[in-house]
Amino acid sequence: MAGTLAPHAPRLTVTPPAQLPLAAIRLPQGFTAEVYAHGMPGARMMAEGPNGTIFAGSRTIGRVYAITRNPDGTTRTRTLLQGLNQPNGIAVLDGNLYVIAINRVLRFDNIEQNLDNPGSGTDLTAAFALPTEEHHGWKFLTTGPDGRLYTNVGVPCNICDFNRDTHALLVSFRPDGSDRRIEARGVRNSVGMALHPVTRELWATNNGRDWAGNDIPNDTLHRVRRSGEDHGFPFCVGDWADPGAPSQRNCSEFVQPAALLGPHVAALGMRFYTGTMFPEAYRNQIFIARRGSWNRERLNGFDVVVAKLDAEGRVTAIEPFLEGLRDDANQRFLGRPVDVHVMRDGSLLVAEEQFGAIYRITYRQ
What does pLDDT average to over the chain? Predict the structure, then answer.
């Protein structure tokens, strides 16, 4: 596979609502999509405050957005922070907003009471001591029921020899940056994770390496049962031993993925569905945003899928949910879903990076 393709840059200017591809979205029967918020170039990962404010990080534009509801049910969007280096990772814990950029970790206390003047925040960079390489250096951030912050450290290359104690990790910390704990090794570049609402096991999406072929390797979904597990990168993706790895290992040495998500789909944000609006069949199942391929000759992804789990936590199927943003006939895309978020009313938000919008998915019989 020739390395002649290039990433698709998102628009960095505001897209008017009339130009959003809402009409193209297809959902299962009974589900409806609407524009929840717009005018947020490059909006990516989401977090919700105690009072319902939705925060959205970004990459290339360096902003963090805040979306609040107006009394009439519409939403107001504001740029909360700017000038940061890829502030993709955001989470809210105890009313405080945590932001992880490439080279900084910041905390903004009582953020919903300070949306018009958040200040410069408390700098926790030294306490977290995260690597600062830009290659796969953007972070995902979430909270656990244990009060810890969970994030990723991507590999600083496509595939290479690297320190497996510092990179290609899922890690967690206490909110002050202390008590670093490696949750999983050998996870190349996770930009989405969540803890199961019942078992509290950590699950994560992972992006496979580039330039091995159109159909190799798959992006993957990982289930972490014990802290410190090794999931195989750079040596293996499932049972596929990567010939480009710095050395060869037996793939049986490593924890196998919970599911294969498709080659080059760019599986990013994921959440367990914990609401009651959707049918019971969706309860505690995993919604996954697949941003879409950039280095595959035929497009793949550009959608939201559901990983269906059985009572033992095994993935039984990957089912389509939000479709219509990939135009296979013309090999073009109309949008790039990057994250999902379950609101308190049970509706599902889907952040779409290409045009800087958030869609809200509701269900009615």
Answer: 96
